[in-house]
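Go through this pair.

…
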Amino acid sequence: MAITNSDLNNLLDAIRSGGDIDVVRKSVEMLLQALIDAEATAQIGAERFERSETRTTQRNGHRDRLVSTKAGDVELKIPKLRKGSFFPSILERRRRIDKALYAVVMEAYVHGVSTRKVDDLVVALGLETGISKSEVSRICAELDHELEAFRTRDLGHVEFPYVFLDATYLKGRVDGHVTSRAVVVATGVSMDGRREVLGTAVGDSEDGAFWTEFLRSLRARGLRGVRLVISDQHLGLRKAIETVMLGSAWQRCRVHFMRNVLARVSRANTHMVIAAIQTIFAQPDAASVAEQFDRITATLAERFGDVADMLQGAREDLLAFAGFPEAH
């Protein structure tokens, strides 16, 4: 379908009369159709009904396609060919909604919104055709590609002297069953203090073999210059760090340590004990850190012997950070 003078005159009449025709949508529809027909003509090598030595095939009807745009839904006709295939480059295959809505659909999906509610959301945003379950799944499949590219990117662009390792457990569907799965995350801090998520992995358990494989994958992607690794006291994780991160010191995560402390203290004394321990890490230099550690340990031993013993037993692991530059 080419844009004829009659089409243009009708559109101009609609604009002048101020009628209720959706002029913008109609204009977009006419323009897209003209571009599609022009591209088809270029591929075929001839206009409709034109005799030409450059013609490679003939048109064979068309198939209707409803496309959602920012101007509204437009109905287009995609030419079919007797030989070969044609699909206009201005459209994406199987695309049904405007690209501006992709982020909305993905965000809703990630937060657990049902596909039916996603469809209601798309309609509320102005696309009367809505969106099917299969289309939601197809759009969100793009998240997998983006995440995989992020998870496998090269890490050799800068050194990360400090690496934090942690894990959490989330519910996931595996082979039709919902099970608990370990999600491990590595976060690096560069020399200039910039923080960056280095990688993530999902497994059936947070065992030593899983951590070892994960850390080796970071090494294979270019992770270098690691001087201090911070994590909890998970035995499998510690063994993996010693095996893979050779030459790196280990710092016991004080957040996890505080949680262990809370299990030994009554709720009435929680704030007092935590505040006292936190002063150890707020000192200006290594010498002050060591002095404050001894002072707090001795003070807590009078009423909280278990906590004092925990501190003394973890002294080397908790104070590993003190051997690094004060600015860090």
